[in-house]
Design a protein that fits this description.
The structure holds three protein chains of three kinds. By secondary structure, chain A is an alpha/beta fold. Chain A has a single domain, classed as Rossmann fold. Chain A has eight helices and 13 strands. Chain B folds into two domains: 215 residues, Rossmann fold, CATH 3.40.50; 125 residues, Rossmann fold (3-Layer(aba) Sandwich), CATH 3.40.50. Helix content of chain B is 33%, strand content 23%. Chain C is built from eleven helices and ten strands. In chain C, 53% of the residues are buried. Chains A and B meet through helix 3, helix 4, strand 7, strand 8 and strand 9 of A and helix 3, helix 4, strand 7, strand 9 and strand 10 of B. Strand 13 of chain A pairs parallel with strand 18 of chain B.
Chain lengths: 267, 371, 386
């Protein structure tokens, strides 16, 4: 049994974010992290491996060379192998293009009957939640997104799929693709011995040459130029202003604020 | 696999809205999207159609006409009773392939965000997620940019004849806005954030005039590879933040005494007839459940009064509340970004300020009642 | 010279930092306030391999190095001095002497359990009458007719005592003549287990700082332990104790380093937020100069500590290096934490902010595992100054 986990390295938008004068993100100034939902997918894979030590976990990401650091951390958490899909030709891909490339890379690794593909629900840089389902479509696999609980018995997986107003319980057979949400689990830490092993585990780079003949990848719809969607304009929202600061934090100030609100018929 | 890779763009026409139903009831998003779709269809001079999949759902279709649909395609089957990716994607994609709409809008609900990408990949077209603003007409788009960006429009070289759908969405947790186009493929697909588009006034005459069509479709059990064992509605009453007129939201600032902080927020919310929400920090810490979250990854609110207690105002959070009419912020830190979005600010400890606010509001209300 | 951490050390530093921030920091105030030994945290650290960092895998260790262990104690101590010393005492004062002096059987029996955190370790040298003067030992161990050792006496101020399962105990086993023919005590080291008959843990000390650390008295009343619990050769106990303390000082130096660095971080964050006279207090030159001095002292301490760890790892003599690292880091930590409180003003004196705790925690690093005065003796002796 293989568990392939798709992950992404993202800028840490919870910290300080700086935008360059041209309206694009100043990535160089920001720390990078493993996308949070993807860590839930990794943890789900590790939990399954705890139950079935025979299972092999392969983490795969598409990104520039420094994404190796993230992959090594995931190996230190207990994943078995890592694959970095990296090439100038892949850069600037939208979700459609990215899912083609990742699906091609997964096909290159090879999928068997009892394999599972796990993704995070969405990445915090784009918040699209599209790559998971699109990989499933390209590989012609059933998908369950928003998985908040998970049980595997043989080739049958029972998932709880979160809805805004409740949940669905869904059964699906391997091979299949699941996208994981925060409620699924609490990602573990790396371990000290895991860190010591992380550089000795199999680590492979798939470049353009490796994947260019994969039938799932159309060479004219990948990368910045080939992607179906393009950024037409990107811009920063204007700062709102005009906050009236109350003179203090005392009774008088509170009273004054409430009077103002009442006078304006807000309350 | 069906796809549109080599189909001429000019062959596509019409605006479609995927109308989501759960347990036989339409979702509020359907009306929002239909209202928005109407504007786009008018600008393009084309038809607006809804697509409604379910089991015996004819009865709810006409209502969509009241928000602008010229036509609703209804596909009924026991296999479409509950949402499954496989069945819905097959029926919807087959219909798109047959009718070739130019624009497809889908609500960015947990279901829409499952169906949308699957269909876009199958149809060989682009999809833009979680859009908060849509434009076809360039003049309207320029107006939108003028009001909502820091961009110097005089330096932009814009093609005013452009008729591509410009799909605007927040990125990087709301730090950036991006307008996305899909110039080479059709349909232009977009999932639209619930609660953002304004719902039009319901028009009974339009509802009566709406055409219900039952297109032929093929679907068998063999097409569906997942089994829905059960669908459970949350027993607990979820907070309806999106529709709330008053929201009192708490953030990391209540960490000193979470219980008391929440109690104060609830008391204030009850007094103002509103509900309690929270920032991502408050949800991540487990102080409130996920349905309370306001922000980029939570709900977008358009409250009349939005009170932020101990919320620093990460842009992530602001993305979900800055369009509220009156924002009142209480924060210890004078430099907290929340004050930049607020209408009124009090720099102080929420644990001492909130009770004084409650007292003052109660007194004002009592005075008014006496009058 | 290459002052960079290896890629493994860098990743471990991130692991320790994440763990400290997420698991240790939220409990630190409560640990201090309620004198709460963070037992759950210890379990979590055990699971991640943080209790046997530099021991080989064959003994259940994680196979990392001494500097990685220093990084661990440093990161923990940045947010909680108590948690830092728990790891330090366990590793340096119990697992290390067994690894360095134990028989193969002793190593096989104790190290895997200690490294995996199934057992926690402690070290008993100090007695009411034998603090800095370690020769003043009163605890005795006598061989009985079965060849077992019988221990009598007591130890005080023993870190981890209330929760430890394995104790390294230093005791007097007889009298020998020194080179000048004077009588002196023969001192040996033993491994005592928590459930050994006649052994009990006594009174718990109420302390100024590191209040969550369990500091107790150990009492031996005809405590009988088998012959194979002798650690190292009979009569080598004093040498073992001194060598153990050399290693321990690196751990305490790392604790001091972390406490000081933690206080600098807190002070930097606070002074950037706090507004007085209409501007952030970080904009005042006094604040800037204070912070610059504080940071410089901690950076200097860091390289002394890291260099001592590197020397130990590479088998070089490191006793004076460990002494200098501890002397400098502990005095720097006391100074820096005190200055941090001053920068915080009135708030710094309250328990709403962590700097007063850091100041209380830092003081002990100048005292235990050899006072600053003892470190100066060690350093000057190594310089040949008599």
């Amino acid at each position: 049994m293989k568990i392939i986990v798709c992950v992404k390295q993202v800028p840490d938008t919870s910290g300080k974010v700086s935008v360059k004068a041209d309206g694009t993100l100043d990535r160089a100034s920001m720390a990078t992290i493993t996308n949070p939902d993807d860590l839930n997918a990794v943890e789900a894979a590790l939990t399954l491996k705890d139950q079935n030590p025979e299972a092999k976990i392969i983490v795969i990401t598409m990104g520039p060379a420094p994404a190796e650091g993230m992959l090594r951390e995931l190996l230190a958490m207990g994943c078995d192998e890592a694959v970095l899909v990296s090439g100038r030709e892949f850069g600037g891909s939208d979700t459609f293009a990215t899912s083609q490339i990742l699906a091609g890379a997964i096909a290159h690794i090879g999928l068997e009957d009892d394999d599972i593909i796990l993704c995070g629900r969405q990445a915090i840089d784009g918040d699209t939640a599209q790559v998971g389902p699109q990989i499933a479509e390209k590989l012609n696999l059933p998908q369950v997104s928003y998985v908040s609980e998970l049980q595997v018995e043989g080739k049958t997986i029972t998932c709880r799929r979160a809805l805004e107003d409740g949940y669905m319980t869904i059964k699906v057979s391997t091979p299949c693709l699941l996208t994981c949400i925060k409620e699924l689990n609490e990602p573990r830490y790396m371990s000290v011995s895991g860190v010591m092993e992380a550089w000795n585990k199999p680590y492979t780079v798939f470049d353009f040459e490796t994947l260019k003949d994969e039938p799932l990848i159309e060479l004219d719809t990948i990368g910045l130029k080939g992607s179906p969607t393009n950024v037409y304009k990107s811009f920063t929202p204007p700062q709102k202003g005009g906050c009236t600061m109350m003179p203090g934090a005392d009774k008088e100030s509170c009273r004054q604020l409430v009077d103002t609100l009442a006078a304006k018929h807000i309350i | 696999m069906t796809e549109f890779k080599n189909t001429e763009i000019s062959e596509f026409s019409g605006v479609w809205v995927f109308c989501e139903q759960r347990a036989g009831s339409l979702m509020p998003t359907d009306f929002e999207l239909m209202s928005e779709g109407r504007k786009l269809a008018d600008e393009l001079g084309c038809e607006l159609a809804g697509v409604l999949l379910g089991d015996d759902v004819d009865g709810i279709a006409k209502e969509l006409g009241g928000y602008g649909a010229d036509k609703v395609y209804v596909c009924n089957s026991p296999l479409l009773k509950h949402y499954t990716t496989d069945a819905y994607a097959k029926v919807f994609c087959d219909l798109v392939v047959e009718k070739k709409p130019e624009i497809v809008l889908i609500g960015a609900t947990n279901i829409g965000r499952d169906l949308g990408p699957r269909c876009a990949a199958r149809l060989h077209t682009g999809l833009t997620a979680d859009c908060t603003h849509l434009d076809v007409n360039m003049e309207k788009y320029v107006e939108f940019l003028a009001a909502n960006s820091t961009m110097d429009l005089s330096k932009q070289n814009l093609d005013m004849a452009d008729r591509n759908l410009k799909m605007t969405r927040p990125a990087f947790g709301g730090h950036l806005m991006a307008s996305i186009i899909c110039p080479r493929f059709r349909p232009c697909m977009s999932t639209v954030r619930p609660g953002v588009m304004k719902r039009a006034e319901f028009d009974q005459a339009k509802a009566d005039a709406c055409v219900i069509e039952h297109p032929a479709f093929e679907l068998s059990e063999a097409d569906i590879h997942t089994e829905v064992v059960e669908v459970v509605k949350a027993a607990k009453q979820l907070v309806d933040l999106t529709g709330a007129e008053v929201v009192v939201a708490v953030g990391r600032g209540i960490s000193k005494d979470v219980e008391k902080g929440l109690a104060l927020a609830e008391e204030l919310a009850a007094l103002l007839g509103g509900v309690v929400g929270g920032s991502r920090a408050a949800i991540d810490a487990g102080w409130l459940t996920a349905d309370h979250q306001v922000g980029q990854t939570g709900k977008t609110v358009h409250a009349k009064i939005y009170v932020a207690l101990g919320i620093s105002g990460a842009i992530q959070h602001m993305a979900g509340m800055q369009d509220s009419e009156c924002i009142i912020a209480v924060n210890k830190n004078e430099g907290a970004p929340i004050f930049e979005a607020a209408s009124y600010g009090i720099c102080g400890d929420l644990f001492s300020v909130t009770p004084m606010l409650i007292e003052a509001i109660a007194a004002t209300k009592a005075e008014k009642a006496a009058v | 010279m290459d002052f960079r951490l290896t890629k493994e050390q860098e990743m471990l530093q991130k692991l320790f930092r994440d763990f400290a921030q997420n698991e240790v920091k939220p409990l630190a105030a409560e640990v201090d306030e309620n004198e709460m030994f963070p037992a759950e945290t210890v379990k979590k650290m055990a699971k991640l391999g943080m209790l046997g960092i530099y021991f080989p895998k064959e003994y259940g260790g994680a196979g990392a190095d001494v500097l990685s262990y220093v990084l661990c104690v440093e990161e923990l101590s940045k947010v909680c001095g108590t948690t830092g010393v728990i790891v330090s005492a366990h590793t340096s004062l119990c697992a290390a002497p067994i690894y360095e002096n134990g028989t193969e059987e002793q190593k096989q029996k104790y190290l895997p359990k200690l490294c995996k955190g199934e057992w926690l370790g402690a070290f008993g040298l100090t007695e009411p009458g034998a603090g800095t003067d370690a020769q003043g030992q009163q605890t005795v161990a006598v061989k009985n007719e079965n060849g077992d050792w019988v221990l009598n006496g007591s130890k005080i101020f023993i870190t981890n005592a209330g929760y430890a399962d394995v104790f390294i105990i230093i005791a007097v086993t007889g009298t020998v003549l020194d080179k000048k023919g004077r009588k002196s005590k023969e001192i040996s080291a033993f491994i005592v287990e928590r459930n050994d008959p006649g052994f009990k843990v006594g009174k718990h000390e109420m302390k100024m700082g590191i209040r969550g650390s369990s500091t107790c008295e150990l009492i031996f009343e005809d405590c009988v332990i088998p012959a194979d619990r002798l650690l190292g050769k009979q009569g080598k106990g004093f040498a073992i104790a001194m060598k153990t303390l050399d290693g321990g000082r690196i751990g305490i130096a790392a604790q001091a380093l972390g406490l000081g660095e933690g206080a600098v971080e807190e002070a930097v964050n606070y002074t950037k937020e706090r507004v007085q006279f209409g501007k952030r207090i970080s904009a005042f030159q006094n604040t800037q100069f204070q912070l610059a001095d504080m940071h410089t002292r901690m950076e200097a301490a860091k390289y002394l500590v890291y260099s001592a760890a590197y020397k130990k790892q590479t088998g070089q003599p490191y006793s004076p290096d460990a002494a200098m690292a501890k002397l400098f880091a502990s005095e720097a930590a006391s100074d820096v934490t005190r200055r941090a409180v001053q920068l915080f003003g009135g708030y710094g004196y309250t328990r709403e902010y962590p700097v007063e705790r850091m100041m209380r925690d830092a003081k002990i690093t100048e005292i235990y595992e050899g006072t600053s005065e003892v470190q100066r003796m060690v350093i000057s002796a190594a310089m040949g100054v008599k």
